[in-house]
Specification:
The complex is a heterodimer of chains A (about 240) and B (about 300). Chain A is α/β, with parallel strands linked by helices. Chain A has helices spanning about 40-50, 75-80, 95-105, 110-125, 140-155, 170-185, 200-205; strands at about 1-10, 20-25, 30-35, 55-60, 65, 80-85, 160-165, 190-195, 205-210, 215-225. The longest helix of chain A has 16 residues, at about 170-185. In chain A, about 40% of the residues are buried. Chain B has a 4-stranded antiparallel β-sheet with strand order 4-5-1-6. Chain B has a two-stranded antiparallel ribbon with strand order 2-3. Helix content of chain B is about 65%, strand content about 10%. The chains are: A alpha/beta (about 240), B alpha+beta (about 300). Chains A and B meet through helix 2 and helix 3 of A and helix 7 and helix 8 of B.
Chain lengths: ~240, ~300
Amino acid sequence: MIRFENVTKSYPGTTRPALGDVSVEIQKGEFVFLVGASGSGKSSMLRLILKEEKPTRGQIYVLGKKLSALPNRKVPYFRRSIGVVFQDFRLLPGRTVYDNVAFTLQVIGKSRGFIQEAVPDALKMVGLAGKANRMPHELSGGEQQRVAIARAVVNKPAILLADEPTGNLDPETAQGIMALLERINLGGTTIVMATHAQDVVDRMQRRVIELMTGRIVRDERQGGYVTQALPILPELGGLGAS
Amino acid sequence: MLKEAFAGLSKNASMVVSVVLVTFISLTFVGVAMLLQGQINAMRDYWDDRAQVVITFCSSIDEGGNCIGEAATDEQIAAVRTKLATPPLDAYVESAEYLTSVQVLQNTKEVLGDNPVVSFLTPDLIGASVRVTLDDPAEADVVVESISGFDGVFAVDDTRKFLEPIFGMLNAASAAAIGVAVLMLVAAVLLIGTTIRLSAFSRRRELGIMRLVGASNSFIETPFVLEGVIASLIGSLLAGGALIAIVQFFVKGSLGAELGGTGLLVGVWDAVAVVPVLVGIGVLLAAISASVAIKRYLRV
């Protein structure tokens, strides 16, 4: 589904690469946390998967496609099978909840009939069926993130990338968002989520890939934010210091 | 898409108005330059059809050059006419009309009308002449060169040379109009680019989301290109209107009235024919500069 082969990403003007010789494979249907300090390379990985950036060295395969061989004009079509959610929601402030979700389908040229069916479904799935005509600023942070998730999954993408989706939310609201993501994952969508939220990671007990200064230092099948296998400061595990 | 283009147009109205004005003025100059060229060509065709080489023989008062103070003899005139009618000159000559000094005086009287000068003219003051019509007016020099040296020939003139200053003036005006037009077109292209960039910047949030969810480049690009095209379309239609008005009121109205008879001047239909060209130039330039300007926002 997603495979990195010895991927190095250096940004111009920096000495240390953002990602150094990273190799990892993510299977279909997995729920993967990317954890690590700011600047450890989590966001770079997500941008590379989306082909927003090109790796300096190495190969990336996503959905069976070798990204370096994907011509620029085909990138938009490639992105239609990947949903993205951000910490800051990125909704369009001048459009209603319904229009924000419909926008995705409009810009990729879906028919009016398809949109009228798919958007209410997506809103219902994220639990916002009754708020279709609200404006984003009338909603709470958690609700706004639900709209963003509805927008990301309305086109039934195979992969959902989430860059700190709970970063702006209180722990309880974050819990609701995680339950939603889990449900989406159960539907077969592969989810890759970069996060700092220790409590979230610990509670889910899913695959954890930890990055440190651009290198993978841990890849645990069912891990917490801090590894249980190597008991470093085990008393902090599960305390929820996000 | 059209809706989005108009939304963009109304959002930065002042920039759009300046795009309209700059394309309007630049394309008006383009149109004027084109009509001037058309005018020059029409006049050249007209006068080339009527161009002649006029050979004037000596009269009894002409001295200097080939003249010795007495009228050209019949033999001298016959020598010139024979020269024109035999090879190699006959190849260039379509027809040659001989006018005696009496006939020349008659023509002069007709042209001058009741001008008092006419009463002082007598046939012996005026030389006879031969009016040579050429197959190709551009070959006039050949005739001028061959005949100038003959005895009894006072002057050999290519009538077109009297028109050269007029053509020079028209050419200079046309070149000036083209110069202004090019400068203004450059300004228009840059302004369209800037306007589109501004419009894209004010919608960068939407553009970012569009790129993220996989909107194709042409989908993102089209409203902006349309925006530029609509603005310059308005400008070029205004330019077309201005051009027709200039021809109608200035060329046909005042120039035509002054010169009497408008057969030689460009008409309203010439101006109408230029309008599609102006619209084409305006739309094409706007489309190109808008799509170049928006490319930065399409980079993946």
